[in-house]
Amino acid sequence: MQRQTVIGRGVRVVLLTLVGLFFLFPIFWVLLMSFQTNQDILRIPPSLVFTPTLENYGALISGRLESTAGVLEIRFMNNLMNSVILAVSSVALSLLLGIPAAYAFARFKFRLGEDIAFTLLSFRFAPPLLVLLPLALYFQQMGLIDTYIGLIWVYQLITLPLILWIVRGYFEDISEDIEHAYRLDGNGWFKTFTRIAIPLAKPGIAAATLLSFIFAWNNFVFALILASADKQPVTVGALAFVTASGIQYGQIAASIVLSVTPTLLLALYAQRYLVEGLSLGAVKG
Amino acid sequence: MYSRIQDLANAVVRRQLDRRNFLRRAGQLGIGASAATYFLNRAQSTALAQDFDWQKHKGTTVKLLLNKHPYADAMIANLDTFKSMTGMEVTYDVFPEDVYFDKVTAELSSGGGNYDAFMTGAYQTWQYGPAGWLVDMNEFINDAALTNPNYNWEDILPNLRASTAWSGVPGAELGGEGAKQWAIPWGFELNSIAYNKRVFDAQGLTPPNNMAELLEVAAKISKDVDGMYGVGVRGSRSWATIHPGFLSGYSNFNERDFTMEDGKLMAAMATPGSKSFHADWVKMIQDSGPRDWATYTWYQVGTDLGAGASGMIYDADILGYFMNGEGNAEAGNLAYHAFAPNPEASAPTPNVWIWSLGMSNFSTQKEAAWLFMQWASGTDHALFGARDMDFVNPVRQSVWDDQAFQDRIAKSYPGYLEQYKASAPGSKIYFTPQPLFFNLTTEWASMLQQMVGNEVPVDEGLDQLAESVNRQLRQAGI
């Protein structure tokens, strides 16, 4: 019996390793590519043996790319900073607006409540290209075109509905009795909201924050249409290495590694909350 | 030393000294080539400025929308020359090519006046021009008060001038009666063969001179050279699959995309000649093309040639030019060959892609924008770009005649000039201009994919394509 368990464990470890390798291989390959020159990457057949170089990261960080066409200026770090500004600010604003709104939708019944909640959700249904051209017209008239404020506002289309609807589910899962007990002690609803409801819904809020951050980080089209080159995020910036005179595979790989890192770190940090939060919201009592 | 280099540069402008001797003497003064070129450009700009009021819009800022491309890089590298000559400021946004036309289309269709001038392809002007988003550049070119006397519009290759002008009438000849000049040609590429000379020499092969030879040589490379396939051509489901080698070869057999019948545009892809060409093309890809041909775009075709994965390409000549540069495994091994697939044709008929400069109709400072455009598309900047940067192919005859440019190309790109000279007379846009260009040409590429994948026989596929195209034209009232 014990022997079977040992064999079973061994098989499980081998299978898990194989599955892990299968899923991690593309990331591992991209990581390797980021330390290779274009010539090493395009070698036929590909090889795992190469002399590592930091040239790709150096080019991205210094903003100067040596290529067959000469020395080119690249603005990847500026793109990375734009992504941070846009994703962090959008999620922060959505949390500020979305959490009280989610609490209100979860706890209070009011006229047109469901209609408003559904309208907010419907922002997620609209194909971005459909809304972008009219938005561009309005933004031009309002002076919001090519501004961070304008972009953060538009990013609410992505982040606000996500946070609102996910967090609402968590608030609904928390027993109202706890809040009632707290209020019987003479505390107002706002204090109940900040001291009881928010701490209890923390895992859900963390999960919603992370998901909306990932969606905001990966967005491509909003800034492309509504802003100039100096406000573009990494998703657009990484394409600059695909030029008519050749593809800089090494720099693309390095830019992927750099652009994935913030999300990866955030996901690792919030992993515990994420799993707990997602499973909590998934089951209705 | 400063005054001596200036004197030398002025001597070049006065044609008392040629460029080669200027650079030699600058070297003797301890001045490097790029610094010497800077002084020369400044002297030329100063000379130009004496004939024309380049300072008319001093203090104005012009904003450009640019594609990430060696042409844009060459312009940015020389931009200070324009700024010092005009006293104007120039700002620009550069976007990657993958998303560039999305940005341009969104910008123009929303009526935004954020950019005064921008890079465009000639095909795109068939959409932008008739929609009223572009300025007819004839208004400026023909106005002596606004155009500098040395601009020399006639120096731009006539087929390129015609290819960027259209009346807006579907099927009307490019550059024909009533045509509006929707854009100014800036740099262009024609389609011919670039091949790996190292491999061709080792295999005892010579570049093909007709379609049958192309199939034969490509098949031999695929069979005899390890890890290499015969010929690289594009294959993605996009209009860009049709416009390079495919349309160039197709036109060489006198086949057309459309014909005009009783005043109506009719699809011409189902003729016996067209079916025969398609059958050869499909066989070539099946026997000797890349394995993932259906995903191939400009990038994969070029990368494979540069990395030694393909023996030759039938694509843009400048793609072969770029792949012969440093950073590619086969750099220095590539050569160029003009190609007329029809044994009865007297010369090649390459279709062309023309990067051009267009002016937004929503610009509020059109005269200032025109000052920039005439400098950027003028002879001096074209010479700078062709001699010192990768601003090839030049659109001006005077640049092709320039000895310094010819020497540079002949030295590093064997056969390129000969290829160009043989291909250039027949180079133009062979598509029929019509507003459904992108949709219908993409459908053509899609049908080609089905034929190569043996999902539909060539004859049947082309009959279906012609029927579908005609139906869409009638629905659009064309």
Secondary-structure-derived class of chain A: mainly alpha
Q: Tell how many strands the DSSP assignment of chain A holds.
A: 4
Instruction: Give the second-level CATH assignment, the architecture of the largest domain in chain A.
Output: Orthogonal Bundle
CATH class value of the largest domain in chain A: Mainly Alpha
Strand order in space, largest sheet of chain A: 1-2
Largest sheet of chain B: 8 strands, mixed
- The averaged pLDDT of chain B comes out at 93
DSSP helix fraction of chain A: over 70%
Total separate domains of chain A: 2
CATH superfamily of the largest domain in chain A: MetI-like
CATH superfamily of the largest domain in chain B: Periplasmic binding protein-like II
Number of helices of chain A: 14
What can you see in these coordinates?
Chain A is mostly helical. Chain A has 2 domains: 2-73; 76-282, MetI-like fold. Helix content of chain A is 73%, strand content 4%. In chain A, the strands form 2 sheets. In chain A, strands 1-2 form a two-stranded antiparallel ribbon. In chain A, a hairpin with a 2-residue loop joins strand 1 (64-67) and strand 2 (70-73). Chain A is flat and about 70 Å long. The relative contact order of chain A is 0.14. Chain B is α/β, with parallel strands linked by helices and 478 residues long. Chain B has 3 domains: 1-50; 53-187 and 353-424, Periplasmic binding protein-like II (D-Maltodextrin-Binding Protein, domain 2, 3-Layer(aba) Sandwich); 190-351 and 428-475, 3-Layer(aba) Sandwich (D-Maltodextrin-Binding Protein, domain 2), CATH 3.40.190.10. Chain B is built from 23 helices and 12 strands. Chain B has helices at 2-13, 19-28, 33-49, 70-77, 79-86, 97-109, 122-128, 138-141, 158-163, 197-203, 211-224, 239-242, 245-252, 272-288, 298-307, 317-323, 366-376, 379-388, 397-400, 403-412, 416-423, 437-452, 458-475, and strands spanning 61-67, 89-95, 117-121, 165-166, 180-181, 184-196, 229-232, 258-261, 264-267, 310-316, 334-337, 352-359. In chain B, strands 1, 2, 3, 6, 7, 10, 11 and 12 form an 8-stranded mixed beta sheet that branches. In chain B, strand 8 (258-261) and strand 9 form a beta hairpin. Chain B starts with a helix and ends with a helix. In chain B, 53% of the residues are buried. The mean pLDDT of chain B is 93.
